[in-house]
Here is the input.
Amino acid sequence: MLRKLWQWFDEETESSDDVEVLTVKKFRGDLAYRRQEYQKALQEYSSISEKLSSTNFAMKRDVQEGQARCLAHLGRHTEALEIATNLENKATNTDHLSTVLYLQFAICSSWPNLERTISCLQKLIALHPFDPWTWSKLAEAYLSLGPAPSASVASPQGHDGFLSSDEAVKSAFPHLGRDCLLCLPELLPQSSVFSIKARSSNGQKYENTLKSIPSCMAEKREAVLPETLVKACASLIRARLLLQLTESQQTSFALEKNLRTQQEIEDRMKGFHFPEDTLLRVTEVMGEDIVPEKMKEGVHAAVKGTGVVGLAGLVTASVEGFEDKWFGKLRGHFCSLESHFHTEKRVLA
Here is the structure.
């Protein structure tokens, strides 16, 4: 039955209705994408992109997202990112902007482009500062800034060295709810949207993410600046604090996974070998704004309800001051940690 539903527009269609013709071509592109025929899907999307009415915002956005995904799969990352950036500038609300940023994150992760990946994650946090999963991915990105990231820290790749944008988004953001799903193309393949099964297993996927973070911390500490290590540690600690706040809302296996994930973070903290006073200070700073009243808003108050003219610009401005806002109060620990590492190195020598 499902096969028949997909096939009705896979045949030649004669129609004098331009809108119907464009819609059929769009569905053909979705079907080709589902079959992993990315070049064919790109051709279908490209053939209608410029023909769509400027008032048909929803389909035009879906088609452009489809083009970006196909280009990424085909290894044309620069072109994919150009389209995603254009979509970002045209986002009309926080849902649209979040969806585009998830897409950009997937493209940058598969490239990889660490600087752009970090910028993208910072923008997502500017929109959703109480999302533990994004904070954990930011920690992973910071830890990957060393000159020679190990295989255990690098993102998993496919046989051609390219992680598909869909896989990158699924592994990074399994928690997305129905509201965000509505912003994604409805007829893209199942791998490009977030299934109920994927969302229900978010705890396990997050644990896997943590396990990929610094098992090689001792080897990388000399390669990564103390300042960067503090930022990574702070991001993980905030993720743990946010998980702690959700405990009262969870039961059964969800609560068990939450607690197990918190323990994973606690274990990872030991790998940083930070002095206890540093960890206490980081915890204090990263938890200053974590109160139930603010978390109910879901989206940062500064960007909530902002129109198309100011939304992307306001988020970009938030990113420009991101590290000052979140890590500025921790700068006093950077020099002391650098001294601590050098002393430890001399003792080990």
About this structure: The radius of gyration is 22 Å. Residues 147-202, 214-221 have pLDDT under 50 and may be disordered. The chain is about 65% helix and 0% strand. Residues 25 and 44 are 6 Å apart (CA to CA).
